[in-house]
Design a protein that fits this description.
Length: 613
């Protein structure tokens, strides 16, 4: 039952003419219109006290309160009387203990068994079950005068939905939050400068109203301007109706003095079934997907999630379905959406992923993986992944122990859509031929390496000495390429199994000037050395397993599948000693990167033999 501004002094006008003028305008409107509040009913019918008045509520009941500028409260019908400033020992706007400033607004508690009064100086008076949570004085301000006065008088207040807090708003658009009332902005945060300055309000603020969930509010100015904050939507103002405020060619006939939100409950929250059906229609392996789900009803501010999606697809919190289906199959996805009021709706939608057509342009003769394509220049700032070091096939006809044979796994910045590439990974072989020389002459059969390529200069791959980082089949590796400055990069290669790690560029970053607008994640097929050179041979099943998809530091990106395709065709005009696939055989038979379920809840990808129609 405490309040601010009870100092036994008369209204302090301050020293600023503009403030005095505006205050007079606000007070004149207050005295002329009287404050009325419809409240949840109460049974009290107390005797009329000096100047008794009342307040407005979101729930209409057989009663209302009126409040006067002197702090008198008048209750009618079943609206209960819980006190006024006189019952606190104050004497209105004059007398021995006057209000420091006139009352300008009141607000009811949610159950109608109490109310607040607020004065122009920011003093708050609590009655009934209305709690006191502070006022502008408790914030260190000194009312309308003093050492730290308000920049403009308070003109309105609004309680939070649970009644455990309230907002005050001043004529200059300043908002003060108390209790559990959240601060979502004011006219100053919009770049305006109150009632003066370089970008002033066109007219003073006269009222405010909270949204039903209390996570936003509206402010309205005397010229009909409306300002929305938090989850309060903007639906127009008098200017959008063609009026010109308080002046101009088509001015308001009188100033706006209040705002009342539509508190009707929103339509039930649901997911638009058509948008979900369209999002999961015509899915095919290796074909990128981009679709958006739509909600209906609920309170705006939606958060989405999904389960049961095809491997390779994901749903963003904004409801965008993105990615690339990785394997043919069918299933059922469940979509969920939660609105800003906490309501949740779900929808299940069946899906089928068809085997996509493969063309010679889509396949590589010696590698498999994923490529991020078409990003904006400089948008790729980091790539990383984990994988298991492959085990060479030393007993197969293509990689028998007497025939040097190797394979490589790597990630890279660029390379997918341009001639630049900064890459790093591992090479593994059944003899010292590993990595087509990546591991160095006479080096071990396994090593880590990195390489920088530009259109005019392809630097030789740089092997990592086994003494610094040894690599063994079956080890779990983690490779990360990160931009640390403009055209400055580092590469970290870690063997998580042995707890070894090397960072290239730690002391002096790698100078790399590629566009950084694409990324790739690659597993290379076994390469065999012959008397006339090297040739790429069909990949052995389970060449390598990827533990994590490629992580790229670019929000909202989409990965496209770059299928691995080898064929056992006997015809080749490229190298007589090798069996390379023809274009037609590439399109009909080969190896593709297929997803395998992971017991850890993630996704494991393995290069394995597959046949496509």
């Amino acid at each position: 039952m405490t309040g601010g501004g009870v100092g036994g002094r008369t209204l302090a006008w301050g020293a600023r003419p503009l403030l005095r003028t505006l205050l007079l305008v606000v007070l004149a409107a207050a005295f002329a219109s009287a404050f009325i509040t419809l409240r949840p009913g109460s049974s009290s019918s107390d005797a009329l006290a000096p100047g008794r008045s009342a307040l407005a509520s979101a729930t209409i009941s057989p009663g209302y309160d009126l409040v006067a500028a002197d702090g008198g409260v008048f209750s009618f019908g079943d609206a209960g009387f819980y006190g006024n400033t006189y019952t606190l020992g104050l004497t209105g706007l004059g007398g021995s203990r006057p209000l420091a400033a006139p009352i300008v607004a009141m607000a009811p508690t949610p159950d109608g068994k109490g109310y607040w009064l607020v004065a122009a100086d920011g003093g708050v008076f609590s009655f009934g079950d209305a709690g006191f949570y502070g006022n502008t004085y408790t914030l260190g301000l000194t009312g309308l005068s003093g050492s730290r006065p308000l920049a403009a008088p308070i003109v309105a207040m609004a309680p939070t939905p649970d009644g455990n807090g309230y907002w005050l708003v001043a004529a200059d658009g300043g908002v003060f939050s108390f209790g559990d009332a959240g601060f979502y902005g004011n006219t100053y945060t919009l770049g305006l400068t109150g009632l003066g300055g370089s970008r002033p309000l066109a007219a003073p603020i006269v009222a405010m109203a909270p949204t039903p969930d209390g996570k936003g509010y509206w402010l309205v100015a005397a010229d009909g301007g409306v300002f929305s904050f938090g989850d309060a939507g903007f639906y127009g103002n008098t200017y959008t109706l063609g009026l010109t405020g308080l002046s101009g060619s088509r001015p308001l006939a009188a100033p706006v003095v209040g705002i009342v939100p539509d508190l009707a409950p929103p339509p039930p929250l649901a997911i638009d079934a058509q948008s979900a059906s369209q999002a999961l229609s015509q899915l095919a392996v290796a074909s990128a997907v981009s679709a958006t789900l739509s909600p209906t009803g609920g309170v705006p501010g939606y958060r989405w999630s999904a389960s049961g999606l095809p491997a390779g697809l994901s749903l963003t919190s904004a409801g965008e379905l993105v990615g690339v289906p990785l394997a043919a199959g069918s299933g059922t996805a469940t979509f969920s959406v939660t609105d800003s009021a906490g309501e949740t709706a779900t929808l299940s939608q069946a899906w089928t992923v068809a085997i996509g057509s493969q063309t010679s342009q889509q396949v590589s003769q010696n590698w498999s993986g994923y490529a991020l394509e078409g990003a904006a220049r400089g948008s790729v700032t980091s790539v990383s992944t984990r994988f298991v070091v492959p085990t060479p096939q030393t007993t197969s006809t293509t990689c028998e122990s007497s025939v040097p044979c190797d394979t490589s796994v790597w990630i890279g910045v660029d390379g997918a859509t341009n001639s630049y590439l900064l890459q790093a990974g591992v090479a593994v072989g059944n003899q010292a031929f590993a990595g087509e020389g990546f591991c160095g002459s006479g080096a071990a059969a396994e090593c880590a390496w990195w390489e920088e390529i530009t259109p005019s200069n392809e630097q030789p791959a740089v092997p990592i000495s086994p003494s610094a980082l040894s690599v063994s089949p079956g080890d779990t590796m983690e490779v990360t390429i990160t931009e640390v400055g403009a055209d400055q990069w580092t590469i970290t290669i870690a063997d998580l199994t042995t707890a070894q790690q090397v960072t290239i560029g730690a002391a002096t970053p790698i100078s790399y000037g590629g566009p950084a607008n694409s990324a790739e994640w690659i597993a290379e097929a076994p390469t065999v050395a012959t008397s006339t050179g090297t040739c790429e041979l069909p990949a052995e099943p389970s060449v390598t397993s990827f533990l994590d998809p490629l992580a790229v530091a670019t929000p909202g990106t989409t990965f496209t599948l770059a299928p691995l395709a080898f064929s056992d065709s006997t015809a080749s005009s490229i190298n007589p000693v090798c069996q390379f696939p023809t274009a037609s055989s590439i399109a009909t038979q080969g190896d593709i990167t297929s997803p395998l379920g992971s017991s850890s809840g993630g996704t494991t990808f393995s290069v394995q033999t597959s046949t496509t129609p």
